[in-house]
Design a protein that fits this description.
Number of helices: 12
Strand order of the largest sheet: 1-9-8-2-5-3-4
Distance between the termini: 50 Å
Oligomer: single chain
Number of strands: 9
Radius of gyration: 20 Å
Number of domains: 1
CATH topology: Glycerol-3-phosphate (1)-acyltransferase
CATH architecture: 3-Layer(aba) Sandwich
CATH class: Alpha Beta
Strand content: 15-25%
Structural class: alpha/beta
Helix content: 40-55%
Order of helices and strands: HHHHHEHEEHEHEEEHEEHHH
Shape: globular
Length: about 325
């Protein structure tokens, strides 16, 4: 009874805090972007948040670009990063009409066709633009009617609750990462096609991984989506993200068609995904998440403590 009372108290506290956050999110985006502009100056010039990491990632990815061009992309990225936080926050209080005006969805007949064939749809994408707005795609097609996304639990209860509130705007179902296979196997048995989004460009932390040359660097990744797709009769598609102007995006469903070289690999669909994502990034490099320590490599067989020591040792060098 005591635990139940504490849970109810926590839920009430979160509801009250989210109420005030929703009021603040009701401010027009053109005004919220002024906050983003100020945040950029603080984060880039004062705090210098991960400046060295971002610069190294850009240099390694674009060895042919001059320092002037690298700096231009770097500054544009930090502007975009601040905008992403504002746009995600705006999800707490934005109308369906405004979202429709700000997000264009192209080729949404692709998931409809796959669902009509009785298959499930796995939508693969990267951290480009405001990925929290990507769920807007589910408002444009009639089938599949069940939509979900896989997430990793956040330890901080308040931020976990806030992110759940943001992502629940579209009434999509949230699947905790550890429950992914079990949940999808159950849904597949029920027979109603579903669409699930996977952010594929996370840094892997498991022994089950593959490697690919991506953005001029050897990259580890987890081909989990492709493996799960085989078990639940799902077809994988790519979602191309383009920022057409500030606060406006074009999302395009693309069929994933591996080339001859990719077909020779253990995970041809995943390999083709990385090629498509690289095309997206090279077209508009500043909208990708360069601040993520994606290419920091370690021995997957080392102990947790040794991994932590190596991590901080690497950060000191940065």
């Amino acid at each position: 009874m005591e635990n139940l009372s504490l849970n109810r108290t926590f839920a009430m506290m979160m509801k009250k805090k989210h109420f005030f956050m929703r009021l603040l999110a009701g401010v027009p985006l053109r005004i919220l972007y002024l906050i983003s502009d100020v945040a950029f100056l603080i984060i880039y010039y004062v705090i210098r948040y991960r400046r060295h990491l971002v610069r190294e990632n850009l240099r390694c990815s674009f060895p042919d670009k001059s320092e002037t061009e690298i700096t231009r992309i770097e500054k544009a990225f930090y502007h975009n990063l601040c905008d992403i936080f504002i746009e995600a926050f705006k999800c707490l209080n934005i109308s369906d009409e405004e979202m429709r005006q700000r997000v264009e969805v192209v080729n949404y007949i692709l998931p409809e066709r796959i669902a009509a064939e009785g298959k499930n749809v796995f939508m693969l994408l990267g951290h480009c633009g405001c990925w929290e707005w990507v769920q807007e795609v589910c408002t444009r097609y009639e089938r599949p009617q069940k939509n979900c996304e896989v997430y990793k639990q956040i330890s901080n209860q308040y931020f976990s609750s806030l992110m759940h509130a943001i992502r629940s705007r579209w009434n999509t179902q949230q699947i905790e990462m550890k429950q992914t296979i079990r949940t999808m196997l159950q849904w597949n048995k029920e027979g109603e096609p579903f669409l699930c989004g996977f952010l594929m460009d996370q840094r892997t932390s498991t022994k089950f991984h593959d490697t690919i040359t991506f953005m001029n660097q050897i990259t580890w990744y987890t081909p989990g989506a492709e493996e799960i797709a085989k078990k639940v009769n799902a077809e994988l598609v790519y979602l191309d993200i383009e920022k057409t102007s500030r606060g406006h995006y074009r999302l395009t469903f693309v069929e994933i068609q591996p080339n001859e070289e990719e077909l020779k690999r253990d995970h041809p669909i995943s390999s083709a995904f990385w090629r498509l994502l690289e095309q997206t990034i090279r077209r508009q490099p500043d909208i990708w998440l360069w601040s993520h320590n994606r290419w920091y490599k370690w021995d997957l067989n080392m102990s947790f403590g040794a991994r932590i020591r190596q991590f901080f040792k690497g950060n000191k060098k940065a």
